Amino acid sequence: MYFGTDYYPEHWVYPYAGTADQPESRWDVDAKLMVAAGINVVRMGEFSWGLCEPEEGRYDFDWLRRAMDVMQKAGLKVVLGTPTAAPPIWLARQHPEILPIDEHGLRRNEGTRRAYCLNSDVYWEYSRRIVRAMATALGNHPQLIAWQIDNGIGGHQTSSSFNEEARRDWQAWLKAKYETIDRLNELMGNRFWSQTVRDWSEVPTPKAAPTVHNPALVTDWKRFSSDTCVAFVKMQADLLHELTPQIPVTTNLRALTRNFDHFDMAEVLDFVAVDSNATIKSKSSENACEIDMLRSLKKTGVRTPDGETGFWVIEQKAGHVNWQEVNSLIRPGVVRLFTYQLVSRGASGVLYFMWRQPRIGSEKFYGGVLTHDGHADNRIYKEISQIGEEMKLLAPVLKGTRVVAETCILYSHENEWAQQQPMQPNKHFNQREHVQLYYNALHDRNIAVDFARPTEDLSQYKLVFAPSLHLLAGGEADLLKLYVQNGGTLVATFNTGLVDEHHMAPDTGFPHDLTDLFGLEVIEFDPLAPGEENHLAFKGTFPTSHLHPARIWCDLIEPKEECQILATYAKDFYAGRAAITLNTFGLGRAVYVGTMSQQYFYYDLIAWLRQMCNLFPLLKVPDTVEVSLRQKDDTKIYFLLNHQNSPVRLQFYKPMHDFLTGNALSGNYDLPPHGVLVLDEHPAA
Ligand code: GLA
Which residues neighbour 543 within 8 Å (Cβ) at sequence distance 6 or greater? Predict the structure, then answer.
């Protein structure tokens, strides 16, 4: 278990710290304070190109080696960031062609981080050189346990740019995909609005234009940009694997928010590392959803520095941020609570961003473990030290444990990119909001959930949700059928299978390629404005705790004979028509939910599905307490988190062992505001 911080030794030299005689003397103080807080790893170096190569070809890694030596003396391990996220000014001055050009044809200038076009050969070449030089100079340092490639790849809207080299690569990418120009014209549907091209060089990039570009072209552009981001990271990963084969590589991702395919990215990394925004969001289930998404990116082939299977949170907020309109303080106990949330959902490394509030630069009012004065008598340092103590205790028992989920939510970037485009049936439909409704229902009932692409093997899951796979490739539809055929239960919804992978609508009915699976056809769909509602009328055994609305979208469903109707619409010209159905297919069941409702409906749906699929909540506790489980063989470690600002009463019907205090708990127990309980069970022992 790694517990650490993001350290910028370059910020803490004379005249900002240290003395004229001993300009780096603060580093020793920092290392000692880190160790006292239970920290065992630091990440550093990711923005230091200009210091490591102050002019072309003149490298200076000595200062970084000295910083690593200081860490070594204190027993701290090091993750080194390759510095390509912050190209030096001299490089941009020498090669202005590396600067990214935006969709309006305007150059985005140097003077900040990420000022580069990912398709620039020159940038690739300079990146290769600095990465090679860094790995050669520091790759043998005994403290080095992992590489972080670049930083925040795709951030600040840099996942694509419109430079000439991007255009060149785009056209080559299209040629590899379509092979002939006729095929491209046909599959992209270029006869619409007279967009037929005669040659690869004529295919446009989706630059600013009078109106919307062909959605098939835009979807391809997103795929191409994603492949570019992944290729840039892979180029560095390959180089690092060649030079330091024993050191695993990662990069810091965000919860599927950047414009590249995070699953593809995870494939070229040895382990997944993420930046977490927790402590800013108030809703625990939204944080949990992001964590589960990121944990799910890499399910096999994981190689972490200590051989654990989990993922790392390489930037966890230590305090407040600097990019909201109002950057309020994080309340006492909340950093601890969210650290436990990450660990409980599978993290095997947590590092706080950042060690100390810098005295220089644009992030000086961002919260840190230490405040500007560096005294270590501040509130956050004390809280982190408490967590550090607890993590030392927990590490041995967590070793080898993991999160096991029996349910899964399907997610695909291509689908999301397709839905983000203009001219959708309902611009008020939001895919993330839809996913979150399903996720919350599982989360709030303490049922563990993974995320997966529709192309993954789903056979380990009892229950799979596919909310609004608007873009569904033929192959994906086949795999969903196979899953149900073999006994799985699939829940899909409206806005599914409206187009295939070429962005073409089917002429065989909606949902494309799945009408047999669900035993129905969607004849028409009625998007509703915000505030407009229909209602659901339920039949049979479906439990209903409330009157459930149908909002945003109503599919008008024509069920086939054998398909069972679970609910109908209550009003409008389609009153009495099927809204929710159940079909058996092979050994499994396919449920179709033709509309979007409110959260209570999804609770009822889960209650019904739980019975049907034999799913059990991890523990029975009040709704406001989040429960997760890490397990290995017979060992079970339960985490109970109180996300409320007031105590919650728990009842233990059988005695449980409180791992952090060693006490036995039974009967009533009041979990304090933002409190955490770790309960361990070792039945075999
Ligand atoms: C990202 C970056 C960090 C920092 C934070 C600020 O996570 O990786 O360098 O800028 O954002 O939120």
Answer: 604, 607, 608
Q: Is a pLDDT exceeding 80 seen at residue 504?
A: yes
pTM to 2 decimal places = 0.97
Q: What is the pLDDT of residue 546?
A: 84
Sequence length of the chain is 685
Which token pair is 65?
A: 């080696």
Distance 151 CA to ligand 1 centre (A): 8
pLDDT given for residue 648 in this prediction: 96
DSSP secondary structure string for all residues of 51-69:
HH-SBTTB---HHHHHHHH
Residue 460 Cα, ligand 1 centroid: separation in angstroms? 36
* Cα separation, 252 vs 134, whole angstroms: 19
Q: Which of 44, 251, 275, 360 has the most ligand 1 atoms within 8 A of CB, as the residue to mutate?
A: 275
Q: Is the CB of 315 under 6 A from ligand 1?
A: yes
Helices (H), 492-584: 515-518
User: Residue for token digits 């003149």?
Assistant: 58
- Ligand 1 nearest atom to the CA of residue 315, by list position: 7
Beta-ladder partners of 354: none
**Tokens encoding 421:** 């485009």
Distances 378 to 159, 374, 381, 559 between C-alpha atoms, Å: 38, 9, 6, 64
**Ligand 1 contacts CB of residue 467 (under 6 A):** no
Taking only the tens place, the pLDDT of each residue in 389-437 is 999 999 999 999 999 999 999 999 999 999 999 999 999 999 999 999 9
Rg (CA), the chain: 27
Helix (H) or strand (E) holding 393: helix 379-398
685: pLDDT strictly greater than 70? no
pLDDT in tens, 579-597: 999 999 999 999 999 999 9
DSSP per-residue codes, 608-629: HHHHHHT---SS---TTEEEEE
Instruction: Report yes or no: 205 and 221 within 8 Å, Cβ to Cβ.
Output: yes
The verdict on the CB of residue 6 being under 6 Å from ligand 1 is no
Question: Helix H segments across 4-48?
Answer: 26-36
Instruction: Tell me the best of 84, 315, 351, 357 to mutate to test the pocket of ligand 1, counting ligand atoms within 8 Å of each CB and taking the most.
Output: 315
Instruction: Return the percentage of the chain with pLDDT > 90, whole number.
Output: 93
97's tokens: 């062609």
Task: Give the mean pLDDT of the chain.
Answer: 96
The Å distance, Cα 115 to ligand 1 centre, comes to 15
Between β-strands 77-81 and 534-538, what pairing exists: parallel, antiparallel or unpaired? unpaired
For 158-173, write each residue's pLDDT tens digit. Answer: 999 999 999 999 999 9
Is it the case that residue 383 has pLDDT exceeding 80?
A: yes
